[in-house]
Amino acid sequence: LSSLPTEMGWVASTFYKYQGFWHPCRHLQGILSCQKHFEAQDKDTLLVTTPKSGTTWLKALLFTLINRTHFHHSAHNHPLQSNSPHVLVPFLEVKLFLEHENPDLSSFKSPRLFSTHMPYVSLPKSIHDSKCKLVYLCRDPKDTLVSLWFFTNKLRLQEMGSRSLEEAFELFCGGVSMYGPFWDHVLGYWEESLKNPDKVFFLKYEDMKDEPVVHLRKLAEFLGCPFSSEEEKDEVLEGIVELCSFDNLSNLKVNKVGKLPSGEDYSVFFRKGEVGDWKNHLTSEMVERLDRICKEKFEGSGLTF
Ligand code: A3P
Fold this sequence. Notes:
Blueprint: H1 6-12, E1 15-18, E2 21-24, H2 25-37, E3 45-49, H3 55-66, H4 85-88, H5 92-99, E4 113-116, H6 125-129, E5 133-138, H7 141-155, H8 165-173, H9 182-195, E6 200-204, H10 205-210, H11 212-222, H12 229-233, H13 236-243, H14 246-251, H15 253-257, H16 284-298
Parallel strand pairs: 3-4, 3-5, 5-6
Antiparallel strand pairs: 1-2
Helix pairs in contact: 2-5
This protein binds adenosine-3'-5'-diphosphate (A3P).
């Protein structure tokens, strides 16, 4: 690994299975440090996602929602205009606890907002012990897989060549994908959201796309910062949805030409931003097989995609 540029290293690294889930070596280091050192606070919000389920989008939405009293929703002076959502809402294990084993988080003012891809079983103990809230986002596995395939190929080093969709599909179906098995990841949070709805808010990309204002309102209530009737009148909700829309975010200069401090282009987080792009890529055999696996895995859980 040490001979590879570190920011790309995870793509090329061996995956390790830890607590039932597959992780690139580097991310696993971050998870272990985070489990050991992260101290959740009661007012924290943690955005948890399966990779490629719309993390970037929900980072933007939650950041704007939680901080809305501090900013005017003018197109010009909002922090999203000049900062990537990944800078405003950093990943715990992929950023903060990867750069330092025990990072100093004192510059993050309460209410803090972090994100993670960690499976439920791997969350640091302090998250359970505190009153912090979890917002979980997932996406139709067919779109997740296609998005993941494009993303990974973009980040693979030139000399590695790209991975075929067939190969990525086989691995995904066998549960081998970043933070996979996908179904176990989703079920972990789904079951917890049923048991403990005040702690875990379960959201699907497709539902957010379909009715963003409805779900934004529910999210605000869940997080204890409901919209006032004044805000509803002022169409603040529509303003937030518009600010965080794919068209708006993907066309901002910072997201078009900006790079993470580690060198990755922010633009890799924006591709199509649509529901159902799998129809353009997966064969009918692939669709049948993935649907069958999902049916088996989600049987009896009440969860469908
Ligand atoms: P596609 O590859 O299907 O286009 P993540 O942020 O978890 O890495 O997920 C990336 C996926 O979310 C990509 O999906 C990306 O295009 C999409 N996305 C990014 N910003 C979005 C937005 N504002 N609204 C909807 N989808 C968005």
